Amino acid sequence: MLFDRIHSHASDKIALCEGNDTVTYDELCDLIDARCLELVDVDVLGLALDNGIDWLIWDLAALSAKTLCVPIPPFFTRDQINHTIASAGITHMLTPAGITETDHSRSPGIPSGTAKVTFTSGTTGTPKGVCLPASAMMDVASSIHQILGDDFTQTHACVLPLAVLLENVAGVYAGLMAGCTISLTPLEQFGQNYQGLHAILAQTHATSVILVPEILRVLMMQVIKNGLLPDLEFIAVGGSRVDPALIGKARHIGLPVYEGYGLSECASVVSMNVPGRDKPGTTGRLLPHVKAHISNGEIIITNPGFFGYVGEPLTGGFATGDLGEIDPDGHLRVTGRRKNVLITSLGRNISPEWPESALLAQPGIYQAMVFGDGEPHLGALIVPTGPTVDISAAVAAANASLPDYAQIKQIRVVSPFTVENGCLTGTGRPRREVISQTFTSPFSVPENPMNFYDRLVAQTAQQRAALYHVPQLVDGLQGRISRSTYVAYLTEAFHHVKHTVPFLMAMGSRLPDDKRWLHKAIIEYLEEEEGHEEWILNDIEAAGGNKEAARAATPNLETQLMVAYNYDYIARKNPVGFLGMVFMLESTSTQIASQGADAVMTGLDLPKSAFTYLFSHGTLDLEHMKFFEKTVNQITDPADQAAIIEVAQNTFRLFANLFAAIPHEGQRKHVA
């Protein structure tokens, strides 16, 4: 069906474009035929390319050659990719380097006739492979073409990853059936948080796009700032629940937004609103080929189209797990989730038990409950193990084991969940509904709720997590380093700590008049920091090192770079930014002191006199952090706030490099 439609379009019409590169419909047919020849000996193709012409031609060639195709989503972690390869039995992987053969063979759990296995983001972290025949995908594409008609046959811009069915089937296949030009842009060119979306849509004269709610919000802000996109005629939004108010606001500023509902098991779209058949607050009418009903409040798809999951064949209809209703006009309304599965506004399906288990693996976290249905990211209620726990560091460590879409970006510290307050069952399991009613959700706060300190913590989480994955620091926090590594760490610490007082003096001398209120804070820091480098030298001597040799040593280049960066930033850019370095040092030294000092002292059998610097910072920096939080929350200048965040992010990276450069023979062998 698809290829017949492709052949029927005018041969010289542009089918695909990527920057200055174009492919006509006639050329597309030839390219597909040529790629089919390269797939003769390929049984299962793993497609791991960025959005672009090449991705689409390989995908269409696999469909034409009846080669099983397994797209690899770009947001998958390495573990998820490995699971996908093994689960599907991918025999050949296509990456930017070319096609390489694997040592796998097609999974016997994939039914005959499967054309594509699409792996969801995984509600438990382990993706599930949805087995789709070509007919299921063609039914969706054909139905979309049927209800939209030939009025929408101009330029469809691909914004979502092509590995996501919503873009692959509803965007590309439906667009090619209609004779559209498919505009392709590598995902990285959209920029972080899709900051370049408006410019790309304007440049490509896109008439249609598919978005998830969070990207729609980004585009709305860009339209308000940069003006209308007059070429856009149709914006489909789906992937998670959409507030009708958001649809109304988008339309008010000139964005023609229409909500839909879909499932991977149904080859993407199940229902959608379209011009002339639109009812905000619903996800539209079922596509012409879809048959569904409501059973006990749950949406049941009678003819979902998929064969089942890898190793789990489908029998009968498909219970979606979504609660909903179909009104007398035939519009579907999705009202909630039957189970705990969360769907973020970016369309990622996540079981809260997954990130909760990562949080509970951290020593400082006693209990946790994750929220995030319909939100751009996850939040959590957290019960710490004690009053001095650095929750931000614990969350950062947990996040390091999770893909970005499953990481915790917003937290609220609460009192314990107990049987007595009704938050736990008798067997200790959380009663989610009661917890939700008992405690204020991490999202139940006004827009832009975070003070500047909280924003600083949140916006440095990724860099902090990377620091805590440096082997030298990981082993150090567990007491698994040698004496020479500890002395080497102290030596590098000496060579950056000796600059703390000069840094503060340089900062104070360069503050403009309206910022001189910070002098009081600088003076307090100067009084506290004076002489700390000598403590470090004494620790070196107590640990069996030569403190004068350490004093005279040339620090590692990584240490020199961190020092030079801060002097340069103070002198050349913004002296207030140095508070980002203060934040990095105090937040990390608190964690290192509270956990690492005892572990290393025990592991190396060294006297406490070799740890005066670290132990002092355990108590000292907890007080400093309270003072620091109070100070930075008084800084309201956006330029100063941006400078502090920039320096904090960069110094976390530089500090990670400093640790990584310390000689370290690896984990110490424990002798029984």
Give a description of the structure.
The chain is α/β, with parallel strands linked by helices and 672 residues long. The chain is 43% helix and 17% strand. The protein has 24 helices and 26 strands. The strands form six sheets. A nine-stranded mixed beta sheet has the order 2-1-10-9-11-12-13-14-15. The chain is elongated and about 80 Å long. The relative contact order is 0.06. Residues 666-672 have low confidence and may be disordered.
| Residues in helices, as a percent range | 40-55%
What Rg do the Cα atoms give?
28 Å
Low-confidence stretches: 666-672
User: What's the tally of helices?
Assistant: 24
Average of the residue pLDDT scores: 87
Largest sheet: 9 strands, mixed
Number of strands: 26
Q: Tell me the strand order in the biggest sheet.
A: 2-1-10-9-11-12-13-14-15
Distance between the terminal alpha carbons, to the nearest Å? 70 Å
Features:
672 residues, alpha/beta, nine-stranded mixed β-sheet, four-stranded mixed β-sheet, 26 strands, elongated, disordered C terminus
